[in-house]
Amino acid sequence: MLAPLHNRVADKIADKIIVKAVQRFYFDHNATTPVSPEVLDAILPVMTEVYGNASSIHHFGQTARKMLDAARKQVAGMLGAEPQEIVFTSGGTEADNLAIFGVGSRRGCHVVTTTFEHPAVLGAAGQLDHTLVPVDGSGIVDPDAIRRALRPETKVISVMHANNELGTIQPIAEIARIAAEAGVALHSDGVQSAGKIPVNVAELGVGLYTISGHKIGAPKGVGALYVRKRIALKPMMFGGRHERERRAGTENVAGIVALGRAAEWALEQMGEHADAENRRQGALRDHLEQSILDRIPDTRVNGAGSPRVPNTTNIRFDGIDSDALLIALDLKGFAVSSGAACSSGAPEPSHVLLAMGLSRLEARSSIRFSLGRSNTIGQVDALVEALVDSVVHLRKLAPAYA
After folding, report:
1. Is 115 in contact with 141 (CB distance < 8 Å)?
2. What pLDDT shows up at residue 243?
3. Fewest Cβ atoms nearer than 10 Å: which of 37, 166, 174, 315?
């Protein structure tokens, strides 16, 4: 019996189409990271064998509790904190919100933050009386500007440790001294710094510090907030006495174990081998930048010259729409970003780049590249070749580019 006509037509069309497999390389590790082998080995037994509720008093529950407590020590170890200062959350966004609302939501309170924070901080601060402090053209906030923004009713300062789009590292220790003098709690979003550079919350002087699991090789859906002892934190969620009554809800034991192992691995990499992996990524990042600047005219590194985490660069390609370049690279097998993943699809240009003084056109011409453990020098060189080809092609199509 003959196959239906539409099936035969489809088969003939398919016979004429040669699908060329595209080898794909990932340069968007600031958006999320793959689950690392170390974390996968740690999490699989938990998901299949340790299924008890950590609040239960029987054997199954207490086994889960022991693993949760071990993970709390691992996260504390990465941050130079004490285990009881760690509050587990569903991720960076919840931790940022918990820090700001937990300290600054009281009547009459005032919050100081910056114009290029993550939307989780800006969105939370926007619900309260707040002041936005600008950053300079190099992507760094001036501590004196923070000082000038303080008011008698200020209760929280929130400044990210490393910017998610530029990678620029902020002078947190200096801001912490200002906060201490004023008797104000300092929160820092460390989602893009923890695991990439050494972090010691005591040396930084912060009172609250946010991390996120999926940025350091753990699955999505788990994070943590460091809360220094003696800081009173009002919970946002109610219904249980979990996390020392700071975050109600049954703990995500598997996710927390994964976060703990990821934190432990990150700390191991910053030990006696002097941070070899981060130095490797930094060398790849520098090679990528220099190759682009040498081979593609009218390109600039946003935030160049400022201290940055080693894996991140943000580069402007004059005359190019970043979304068009992103799509062109994706078709060639390279995953990059035109801004924060939480803001992807937004019609507006990056608020981070606008905050540091770029025009809307310049901001819309910028691409973020963020490297990780899987990237190699060969992948970087292949990416540069794809960029050269794509930029030449797109500029030919851009009537405004001379």
Report:
1. no
2. 84
3. 37
Residues 6+ apart with CB under 8 A from 353: 165, 302, 314, 339, 362, 363, 366
**Which active-site residues does the annotation give?**
342
Name residues of the chain where pLDDT drops below 70. 1-20, 272-274, 339-347, 400-402
pLDDT of residue 342: 57
> Are the C-beta atoms of 238 and 246 separated by less than 8 Å?
no
* Distance (Å, whole) CA 331 – CA 322: 14
| pLDDT given at position 276 | 86
CA-closest candidate to residue 346, choices 322, 370, 362: 322
Residue 323's φ and ψ, nearest 5 degrees, are -65, -40
How many C-beta atoms lie closer than 10 Å to residue 200's C-beta?
A: 12
Q: Residue ranges of the domains in the chain? A: 21-30+274-396, 37-269
Which CATH fold would you assign to the domain 37-269? Aspartate Aminotransferase; domain 2 (3.40.640)
* pLDDT for 399: 73
Q: Write b or e for each residue in 144-172: b if 16 or more Cβ atoms lie within 10 A of its Cβ, otherwise e.
A: ebbbebbeeebbbbbbbbbbbbbbbbbbb
Give me the pLDDT at residue 1, please: 42
Alpha-carbon distance 228 to 254, whole Å? 25
DSSP per-residue string spanning 355-369: HTT--HHHHTTEEEE
Asked if residue 217 lies in contact with residue 257, where contact means CB atoms within 8 angstroms, the answer is no
Partner residues linked to 391 by β-bridges: none
Distance, in Å, from the CA atom of 241 to the CA atom of 227, rounded to the nearest integer, reads: 17
Domain 21-30+274-396: which CATH class?
Answer: alpha beta
Q: Which distant-in-sequence residues (6+ apart) come within 8 Å of 363 by Cβ?
A: 349, 350, 353, 354
